[in-house]
Amino acid sequence: MAQTVQVTFDAHDPRALAGFWAEVLGYADDPPPPGFDSWEATLDAWGIPPERRNDRWAVSDPDGAGPRLFFQRVPEGKTAKNRVHLDVRTAPGRTGPERMAALDARATELIALGATVLTRIEPDVIDAGHVVMQDPEGNEFCLD
């Protein structure tokens, strides 16, 4: 049987980081459980105190094609480079200046959402070119 994949992020602010990634990928917040109109109503019914309502959050691909992203609050900050990162396929099939222009345009959009550019790798014989970025909490990802 095929397995599904969920990608989990440690975060200081799960809802905010989930919102960033939802914008990047075109994802949406997971809907509340059946019988509830909103997450606030759900958390009220479950007796979750206000200070715990940002302990975790999840977003999913509305088309069901991509993995669910789960964000969990942790007390510690990020201290080293990610060992796993996401490649956001921004310019598949494009090459040369057209590819890099598409990557730069998307990087500019993501900077407005709180991301930062770390490195811009120019195309060469091995690499088609990509942009290494960080999300608002410092997690590396690439625009590819």
Tell me what you see in this structure.
26% of the residues lie in helices and 26% in strands. It is of the alpha/beta class. It has a four-stranded mixed beta sheet, with helices on one face. The chain has a four-stranded mixed beta sheet with strand order 5-8-7-6, with helices on one face. It is elongated. The model has no long low-confidence stretch (mean pLDDT 93).
Query: How far apart are the termini?
Result: 31 Å
Specify the overall morphology. Answer: elongated
Strand order of the largest sheet: 1-4-3-2
The chain-level mean pLDDT equals 93
Backbone structural class: alpha/beta
Strand content: 25-35%
Which labels suit this protein?
144 residues; alpha/beta; 4-stranded mixed beta sheet; 3 helices; 8 strands; 26% helix; elongated
